[in-house]
Amino acid sequence: MASTVELTRDSFVDTVRGDGIHLVDFWAAWCGPCRAFAPVFEQVAQQNPDVTFGKVDTEREPELSAALEISSIPTLMAFRDGVLVFSQPGALPRPALEDLLSQVRALDMGEVRAQISEQQG
Questions:
Q1: Any idea what DSSP says for residue 67?
Q2: Domain Thioredoxin: where (predicted)?
Q3: What is the pLDDT of residues 25-67, one digit of tens each?
Q4: Among this protein's residues, is 109 annotated catalytic?
Q5: Residue ranges of the domains in the chain?
Q6: Of 31, 44, 78, 91, which is the active-site residue?
Q7: Which of 19, 25, 31, 76 is 20 to 30 A from 65, comparing alpha carbons?
Q8: Exactly one of 34, 45, 92, 97 is catalytic; which is it?
């Protein structure tokens, strides 16, 4: 069983809007940093089966990439309980990815939603 899932335009929204934590890697086969980051992403995915680790191939999903304004790859996004809580281009070393995941786990989502509401209001 794969520890990462391929996300497409058809599955992306349903996946990231769901409960729990969803890390999404935007990548392309021709991208050297993407290929270097892939094993790190896979290793952390294997150690965290309670988290969805999704991959979006920007070459196969150009409309999705454009809609999310992906301008540099790799780009990593983190969603928790349907809320985008992190988005940053660049490959992360394993300790940084593990730290990011710990920070996402520790978020008080009530507080996050209150901050979003305040910014929009």
A1: H
A2: 1-106
A3: 999 999 999 999 999 999 999 999 999 999 999 999 999 999 9
A4: no
A5: 4-120
A6: 31
A7: 19
A8: 34
